[in-house]
Amino acid sequence: MISRIFCLIILFLFCFSLIFGQLPENREYPKIGLVLSGGGAKGFAHLGVIKVLEEEGIPIDYIGGTSVGAIIGGLIASGISADSLIHMIQEQDWIYLLSDDIPHKDLYVTGKSDRDRYILSLPIINRKGFAFPQGIIKGQHIENMLHELTAPSYDIRDFSKLPIPFLCIAQDIDNDKEVVFRNGDLADAMRASMSIPTVFEPMVIKGNRFVDGGLVNNFPVKHIKEMGADIIIGVDVGYRIQNVDKWISLLSVMEDAVFYYSNMVKEENKKYIDIYIKPDLKGLGISSFTNSDSLIAYGEEAARQMLPEIRKLADSLRHAGRIQHPKPYIKHDSIFVKAIVMDGLKNLPARLNKASLDFDILHWVKPEEIAQTAENFYASNYFEKVTFMLEPVEGGARVHFIFREKQGGRLNMGIYYDSDYKTVLTLNSTFLNLLTNGTKLSTSLQLGKNPGAEVLFSLDKGPLLSPGIELTSNLVETYSYSLNRTRTGSHAYYISNARLFLQSKPGNKVLFQLGGEFNHTTLEPRITMIDFESKKDNFLGIYNHFYVDTRDRSCFPTTGFRVELLGKYFSNPDFHPIGYFLLDLQKAVPVSYRFSLVNELFGGLATGDSIPYQYNFRIGGQSEITSVGNISYPGYKFLEVSSTNLFYYRIALQYELFPNLFASLYGNIGTMAPSFSDITDTDHLLSGLGFTMGFVSPFGPMKFSLSKSGEVKGWVGYIQVGYSF
C-alpha cells in the first residue's frame, strides 16, 4: 500500500514538472518597446540612453524612430551595438558626410582645378534656363554609408525579421500622407525618414518622394504600441517650443516651422509612454554634429537620472524570469556578388563605368569596397549622384548601382587675386554629352589686368585613348629688372596655343596626354629703356604630359603626392628643333596630427642650338597661375630671373594652428644656368626662405607671405585670395 502511494506521488511530481516546468519557456513576458524621436544632431543623445539600458539589462523587443531616431534605431535593430555606433560617430567626418563634396584626393585629375576655382555654379537644364536643387544636400555620402552599415542584413526585407523588429516614419509628399516603413530596403527607409525639407533633397522610393517623418510624427509611440509593446521607453530630443528671443539662427527658425504640427502629435503619443526620458542638451541644436561626445554624455546623464524606474523595470523582468539575451547580429564580412546592375546611364556607356570597377561577379567583396566604388564613380564629376544597394538573389547578392547623370550644363563663376597677377574674374560654361556621349565642352573667359580665354572639347573613355582639342590665349604683363631689383621695363606678352591630343585616364588620379601643339607668341614693349619692335613667333611641335595627383588638397596639402612630367619638341623656320622637359615632384608627409612636411623637387631643361625666350624657365613671385610658364620661387620678384636650365629643392614645415588655419616656414635651394654643364657652378645658386600664414576657406585659400632671397637684398611680400586658374 505504501509503495503504491509512493509511486503515485512520484508520478504526480513527474507530471507536475512536465506541465509547469515548461511554463517559463512559454510564458508571455511583457514586451519592451523603445521609441527614438527625431532631432538632427541632438539624436546622438539616444546612444547615451541606449548604452545605459544595455548596462542595466533591459531587453528591447521593438524599436521605432523618426529622422535621426530612425537611423540610430535602424542600426541598433540590425544588431550593431551602442558602443560600436558611438565609436563610429566619434570618428566620423561630419562635414564630409553631410555634404556632396568630393575630396580633392578622389576627384578625377581633370576635375580637380574645375572644382576648386569656382565659387558659384548654377545648372542649366536643356539650355532653357537655370535649375535649382530640391535640397541643399543630395545625400551622396550618407546614403552610401547607410547601405554599407546595413549590408550585413541586406537579405532581410521584412523589418520584423531583423534582430530587433523595427519601423520608421516618413512623409509621402506626392500623396500628402504619413508612411510607416515596415519593409523594403532598410537604408532607403532610414534615409527617407531623415530628409529634412530644403536641407536634404527628398528620397525617391518606387516613384514617390519622401521627406522627414518629423513633419507628421516625430515620436511614433502609438505605432510601437500597436506593434505589440506592453511597456514603452521613449527618448525625446525633438522640437521644443522656443521664445522669439531664442531664434538665434536660420536653423532654429526652420526647426520651429517644420516641427510645429508634429509637436501636437507628440503630445498625444506621450500618454502611451511608461518611461519618458528627455535629455537636457544645454543649448546644443540640430546642427551640433561636432559635439557628439557632449550629446552622448547628456543622453547617458538623463538615463541615469531615471535609474530608479529603469532598475524597477529590470528587477520586475528578472523576477518574472525574463533575461536579456544578446540579439543575433547577422554579420557578413563580405558579400558574394552574383550580379552587377547599373541603372540611370543614358549618355555614358556602362562599359566605361565597368572598366572602373574594382571587383567582379562571383567574388566575395567587402561592403566598404562596394561603397568606395560608388564614390569613385561619383568622383568622375559626370554624375549628380551615384549610390548603391544590395538586393538578395539566390546564392548571394545583386549589386545595384543607381546613377543620376548631370544634365545640360553649368554656368560657373570664380574670382581670384594675387599680388603678381592682380584680380581675375572667371566666367565659365560647361556642357556634357554634346554631339556624342561622354564629351565635355568648356569655355572660359578671364577678365582682369591679365585677361585670357580657353576652349576645351574632349571625349572621355576612361583608360582608353580618346581625342580632345584645347585652345588657349593669354595676355600677361611682364617686367625687366635692374641689378638693384627695381623694374626698368614693362612688356605685353601674348601667348596662344592650339592643342590636338589623345588622352587616357587609367584612374581617378592619373592623366596621360600625347598630342601636337601650335604656339603663337607676341612680345610688345610698353615701357622700356631700350627700344625694340614687337617680336612675333610661331612654333609647331609635339608634346606629352603625364600627371598624377593624390594630395588631400592643392593648397597646404598634408598627405599625398603630385607628379608632373612634361616633354615638348618644337621648331620653326628661324630656330633649330628645341627640346623642353620638366619633372616636378611634390610629397606631403604628415608628422603628427597638426604638423606636416611638404617636399618638392623640380628639374627642367631646354635643349637646342638657340633657345627662344618662350622656352626659358621664368622664376619669381609665388603666383600659382602658370599661363606663361612662370614658376613660383620665394625670395624673388615676379618673373625676375629666367634661363634655360633650372633645378631646385624646396621644403616646407607646415603646422595647422586651428582647423584650416596654417603657418608654414619654408626654404628652397636651386641652380639656374644657360648651359647644363654650368648647372653645378655656385655662381648660379638660387636660394630663399619665407613664412606664410594661410586659411583655407570655402571660397579658396587666403595667404599672406614674406620671403627673402639669399643672393639679393630685400624682402618680397605676397598676398593671395582664392584658387588659381
Could you describe the 3D structure shown?
The strands form five sheets. A 16-stranded antiparallel β-barrel has the order 16-17-18-19-20-21-22-23-24-25-26-30-31-32-33-34. Strands 1, 2, 5, 6, 8, 9, 10 and 11 form an eight-stranded mixed beta sheet that branches. It is elongated. A hairpin with a 6-residue loop joins strand 19 (452-459) and strand 20. It has 15 helices and 34 strands. The protein has 725 residues and is α+β, with helices and mostly antiparallel strands.
Concise synopsis of the structure shown:
With 725 residues, the chain is an alpha+beta fold. Helices cover 21% and strands 41% of the residues.
Describe the SSE topology.
Blueprint: H1 2-20, H2 23-26, E1 32-36, H3 45-55, E2 62-66, H4 68-77, H5 82-91, H6 94-97, H7 112-117, E3 120-124, E4 135-137, H8 140-149, E5 166-172, E6 177-181, H9 186-193, E7 198-200, E8 203-205, E9 208-212, H10 221-227, E10 231-235, H11 250-269, E11 275-277, H12 292-305, H13 307-319, E12 335-343, H14 350-354, E13 363-365, H15 367-378, E14 383-393, E15 396-405, E16 409-418, E17 422-432, E18 439-448, E19 452-459, E20 466-481, E21 487-507, E22 510-527, E23 535-549, E24 560-572, E25 575-590, E26 595-607, E27 617-619, E28 630-631, E29 641-643, E30 645-658, E31 661-673, E32 685-697, E33 700-709, E34 715-721
Parallel strand pairs: 1-2, 1-10, 2-5, 4-7, 10-11, 12-15, 27-28
Antiparallel strand pairs: 3-16, 5-6, 5-9, 8-9, 12-13, 14-15, 16-17, 16-34, 17-18, 18-19, 19-20, 20-21, 21-22, 22-23, 23-24, 24-25, 25-26, 26-30, 27-29, 30-31, 31-32, 32-33, 33-34
Helix pairs in contact: 3-5, 3-12, 4-9, 8-9, 8-15
